[in-house]
Input
Amino acid sequence: AQKITQTQPGMFVQEKEAVTLDCTYDTSDPSYGLFWYKQPSSGEMIFLIYQGSYDQQNATEGRYSLNFQKARKSANLVISASQLGDSAMYFCAMRESGSARQLTFGSGTQLTVLP
Amino acid sequence: SAVISQKPSRDICQRGTSLTIQCQVDSQVTMMFWYRQQPGQSLTLIATANQGSEATYESGFVIDKFPISRPNLTFSTLTVSNMSPEDSSIYLCSVGDRRGYEQYFGPGTRLTVT
Output
């Protein structure tokens, strides 16, 4: 079974609007971490945000926030006030406590911001 | 956050040759990883580079094809041996911070095998 599922291969958003990128995960480990990365066409992987399974509040980093719904096993990324530079591939990833810090990645969502 | 550099940034290689990719971190890190990203795909872990001992390989990856060295806590190399066009990928080095809350990637090495 897929551990990380991103069901949106591609998304479009108008500049200055907010967009939500979906991510669901599957684990029986009570301790885990969820990550979001941005990969522009240059290929680098840019760390955006982290959410721990025991964190009581949703993580936020500037225009990025993570909508963490533990019971539903979802960790959606919300980007507010989209900018043209946000156009990129976005990956959700999970690290389980027993995995020696290895990350398991979803298939990614290609976000295009329209002017 | 850790600053990670990789060399080379890209290369075009002939079938049957080998390429060694270097990963340098600006601080000592316990965990270093090597990932592969095939064209249009997500990232797949190749192996965990262990300092002072043999790397731990994931299913589908073997030491003869992807030998890894980790001579100290700031440096690692990945060699892609006897290359074929199927090895054309981006290869990324990754490290975790001490708290375990963040994980960073190098800029990647874009490899094309002809």
